[in-house]
Amino acid sequence: MTAAVAPFPPFHEGNIKNWFLQMEAIFTVRRITDQKTKFGHVVAVLPPAIVDEVSDFLEAVPEVEPYTRLKEAILRRMGRTEETLIRELFSNLTCDGRTPSQLLRFMKSRLGKNTMADSILKSLWLDRFPTTITQILAPMSENTPIDQLADAADRIFSQLDHQTTPVHSAEATSDHRSLEKQWKILNKKLEI
């Protein structure tokens, strides 16, 4: 029986750096180490718009490290700079169907090699949630590591996901009491 061969993923313009990470993982699994072979596989899956963007490079392929140089050229010409990724992190970022922990991992991946104080990252992350959620998380946010806070936020979101939005103020008060109760339960679980 032969092992299944992982196919090369389609080019991902949204995150070129991660696409190259996928390609390199597949190269490792397939034991592809030759620069020219890697180069050929990458060129084979590039969409026409990207080929057009690096056509000058493809017409004069360097003899030394062709794959590495092609990767650098694509990242330089088509990839978003780390500064751009960080700017995007600060603006117009929403939960967009992600759980709080998924959003946190996404934000961390956007930071790339850059570092940011956990307190700042935590603040930016919390800013993406409705006020109700941040109010529940506020008492534990100062002393709780961000990854634990994300787990707690996931549990809160999963509980709130099954509830309907209150329409009347009496229901809102009841909902508020319910949230307080859930917060106390979660806080006790975090202390254990």
UniProtKB/TrEMBL annotation:
Cross-referenced InterPro entries: DUF7041
Protein name in UniProt: DUF7041 domain-containing protein
Database matches in PANTHER family: ENDONUCLEASE, RNA-DIRECTED DNA POLYMERASE
Domain DUF7041 intervals: 9-89
Origin superkingdom: Eukaryota
